[in-house]
Amino acid sequence: MLSYNIQVGISGTQPHHHLTKIWKHLVPHGQRFDTLDRIAELLVDFDVVALQEVDAGSLRSSFINLTEYLAERAHFPFWKHQCNRNIGKLARHSNGILSRYRPSEIVEHKLPGIIPGRGALQVRFGHTQEPLIIMLIHLALSRRVRLKQLEYISDVVNEYEHVVLMGDMNCEPGSQEMELLHRRTHLCEQAPISGTYPSWRPARQIDHIMVTPGLEVTKYQVIHHSHSDHLPIAMEIALPDGIHIAG
Hints:
The protein is an alpha+beta fold.
């Protein structure tokens, strides 16, 4: 599995790029799809990919749904986007999920916040009473709002035994938000890994993949793939015998 905040296909390798490339968040540019094609080359090696900061088709993305674009380039048969902030033709801020396995259910959650525009995708794999649930999230910048969002997410997570929670959480291990999540759920985070943000000098680990105890983690790493302002993180898990996933 991979979690990647792709910054709508805007590469960033220096601090000043946040200023000099800000126009690329608003209008189309030729390098965006070159960057996305390089991202797609990475995604080919994974079974499930959680994408943050994609666009569902607006002026800045040349009216192309970027989740669908990456699914096609990386040969994923199943994909779903969640548009959380629709600014019409200017931008359609979204999360996206790509999968090589057929989901049995996808639920969209609108997360609490002062300004609407944050969401979570809940993806179920398997039709038995023992499914695998993957939740993709991208939390708010405000700590107070993140705490409310994680309270909401905790209630969803606690409905299931086998859960993977992944995404850009905008907070680090040991933060007040993470302490709340550990206190309210059985989610476990692996030993601290290197930073994921900013990609050119990763000092903060704000991207995470967390699992419930019944899922065995066999590999967990940050991938140095500098085509966004975040670095992607990857995890391999071994599924219990009771979980059956269809291709």
